[in-house]
C-alpha cells in the first residue's frame, strides 16, 4: 500500500462527473478536491471549462490551501483509468 487512496479515486470520480454533466445544466459543478489529505472530501466548484483546463495541464484540482499530491497528475490519471468508477 502506498497510502494514497484519494487521488486516483477522486480523479476517476471527477472524470465520471465530467462525463455525466452537460454545461447547460449547471454553471459550476462540484468536483472533489484532489489534495494529498486522505480524509478530504471537500467539494471543488468548477465550471466545465475550468476542469478541462485542469486536465489539459499537468495539475490537480485543489481547494484553497490544500496540498497537491506528490505524484504527477499523469500518474494519477493512469491509475484512475484502472479504478473504473465509470459504469
Ligand atoms: Zn483537499
Describe the model.
With 87 residues, the chain is mainly alpha-helical. It has one domain (6-83). Helices cover 40% and strands 9% of the residues. It is built from 3 helices and 2 strands, in the order αββαα. It has helices at residues 6-20, 48-56, 73-83; strands spanning 29-32, 43-46. It has a two-stranded antiparallel ribbon. α1 crosses α3. The mean pLDDT is 81. The protein binds zinc ion. The site of zinc ion has 7 residues, from loops.
Brief account:
With 87 residues, the protein is mainly α. The chain contains three helices and two strands, in the order αββαα. The chain binds zinc ion.
Write the layout of secondary structure elements.
Elements: H1 6-20, E1 29-32, E2 43-46, H2 48-56, H3 73-83
Antiparallel strand pairs: 1-2
The structure holds zinc ion (ZN).
Residues 33, 35, 37, 40, 42, 63, 66 line the site of zinc ion (ZN).
- The helix-strand sequence is HEEHH
How far apart are the first and last residues' alpha carbons, in Å? 26 Å
- Which structural class matches the secondary elements? mainly alpha
Give the cofactors and ligands.
zinc ion
Strand content: 5-15%
Please tell me how large the radius of gyration is: 12 Å
- Biggest sheet: strands side by side, in what order? 1-2
Q: Count the domains.
A: 1
Fraction in helix: 40-55%
Number of helices: 3
Low-confidence stretches: none
Principal-axes geometry comes out as globular
Mean pLDDT over the full residue set: 81
Number of strands: 2
| Main sheet: strands, sense, barrel | 2 strands, antiparallel
Amino acid at each position: 500500500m502506498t497510502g494514497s487512496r484519494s487521488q486516483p479515486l477522486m480523479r476517476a470520480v471527477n472524470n465520471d462527473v465530467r462525463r455525466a454533466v452537460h454545461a447547460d445544466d449547471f454553471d459550476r459543478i462540484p468536483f472533489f478536491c484532489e489534495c494529498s489529505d486522505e480524509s478530504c472530501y471537500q467539494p471543488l466548484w468548477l465550471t466545465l471549462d475550468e476542469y478541462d483546463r485542469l486536465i489539459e495541464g499537468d495539475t490537480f484540482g485543489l481547494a484553497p490551501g490544500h496540498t497537491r499530491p506528490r505524484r504527477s497528475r499523469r500518474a494519477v490519471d493512469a491509475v484512475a483509468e484502472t479504478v473504473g468508477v465509470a459504469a
